[in-house]
Automatic annotation (TrEMBL):
Isochorismatase-like domain: residues covered: 3-201
Enzyme kind, highest EC tier: hydrolase
Pathway: Cofactor biosynthesis; nicotinate biosynthesis; nicotinate from nicotinamide: step 1/1
Record EC number: 3.5.1.19
Family as reported in the entry's similarity comment: Belongs to the isochorismatase family.
Entry protein name: Nicotinamidase
Gene Ontology MF term list: metal ion binding; nicotinamidase activity
Top-level lineage group: Bacteria
Xref: InterPro entries: Isochorismatase-like_dom, Isochorismatase-like_sf, Isochorismatase_Nicotinamidase
Organism lineage: Bacteria, Pseudomonadati, Pseudomonadota, Alphaproteobacteria, Rhodospirillales
UniProt-listed GO biological process terms: pyridine nucleotide biosynthetic process
Keyword annotations: Hydrolase, Metal-binding, Pyridine nucleotide biosynthesis
UniProt organism field: Roseospirillum parvum
């Protein structure tokens, strides 16, 4: 099988000091950099929101960050403004080695719909184009790393399985937000989808 390392959203706003910091988020960078040479293909994803995105609490008067609202596509967490297009917060972590990335997939750029998964936006219908790009390259096996385990990494891994890829996840190269039991729910969703949890040493 032809494999790719898929690096999910290792951006400044998801690292300590960022607008939506994942605890210990920057700790994944050295391990991800070490994993990259073991894969013939490296793909990066990048959260890329326009100002005033519908998933921002600031776009909903009176709403608190991390509260829930209903969108046409279902429940949506309202986040602090983060990864706004062209800002330093949206940039990749400066220590992340981006030189081997052959593809960068930007997601969440449609103002009215959020996008956790690298494959599908949160309506679970609108494609990002990643699946087609992988299939055209003959890539059948994916290993997921990045931020955050319980949101974008989990959704990407589960969707990858549904779309016919073999998917593994190196949890040591991920970190979670873990809000309202989201990490436990993510572990169950990954197990139910058949995503393999693998040790980093398997690829080093």
């Amino acid at each position: 099988m032809t494999s790719a390392l898929v690096v999910i959203d290792v951006q400044n706003d998801f690292c300590p000091g960022g607008a939506l910091a994942v605890p210990d988020g920057d700790a994944v960078v050295p391990l991800i950099n070490r994993l990259m040479p073991a894969f013939p293909h490296v793909i990066l994803t990048q959260d890329w929101h326009p100002p005033g995105h519908a998933s921002f609490a600031s776009s909903h008067p009176g709403a608190e960050p991390m509260s829930l609202t209903e969108m046409p596509y279902g429940p949506q967490v309202l986040w602090p403004d983060h990864c706004v297009q062209g800002t330093e917060g949206a940039a990749f972590h400066p220590d992340l080695d981006t030189t081997r990335a052959e593809l960068i997939v930007r997601k969440g750029f449609r103002r009215d719909i959020d996008s956790y998964s690298a494959f599908l936006e949160n309506d679970h219908e609108t494609p990002t184009g990643l699946a087609g790009a992988l299939k055209e390259r003959g890539i059948t096996e994916l290993v997921m790393v990045g931020l955050a385990t319980d949101f974008c990494v989990k959704d990407s891994a589960v969707d990858g399985m549904r779309l016919g890829f073999s998917v593994g996840l190196v949890e040591a190269a991920c970190r979670a937000i873990d809000v309202n039991g989201s990490l436990a729910q993510a572990h169950q969703a990954l197990k139910d989808a058949g995503v393999r949890l693998i040790e980093a040493e398997h690829h080093l």
